[in-house]
Prior knowledge:
- The structure is a single chain.
- The protein is of the alpha/beta class.
- It has a five-stranded parallel beta sheet, sandwiched between helices.
- The protein is globular, with a radius of gyration of 13 Å.
- Helices cover 39% and strands 19% of the residues.
- Strand 1, helix 1 (10-22) and strand 2 form a beta-alpha-beta unit.
- The protein starts with a strand and ends in a 9-residue tail after the last helix.
Amino acid sequence: xxxxxxxxxxxxxxxxxxxxxxxGFKALSATSVQEAVxxxxxxxxxxxxxxxxxxxxxxxxxxxxxxxxxxxxxxVVTVSGRAMPLDRAEAISGGASSFLAxxxxxxxxxxxxxxxxxxxxxxxx
Length: 125
């Protein structure tokens, strides 16, 4: 299963990619919405982890995805250091499937992913 990580922090992307690889996922990284859109032009990930980032932000990415038939049903987990109730509500109302506040543990990350994806190597029931 492929997960696209979208975050403007390269170090964060690399750290998340390591966690995902250790859990059996293939991770792709983008450091901007523009780069994510280029990757999505020829790749359909199983899930997207997107930081809120500066404009164009993660919510803008979700709005783009929801308009494209091939991509509209991909679960998107918004990941952000801004985790007030209003921030969470904005992400969910913008189309995010879940919200994960930074900082988080590897276990918390994998737990939210498992809400949306079956475990690698197992079929969904």
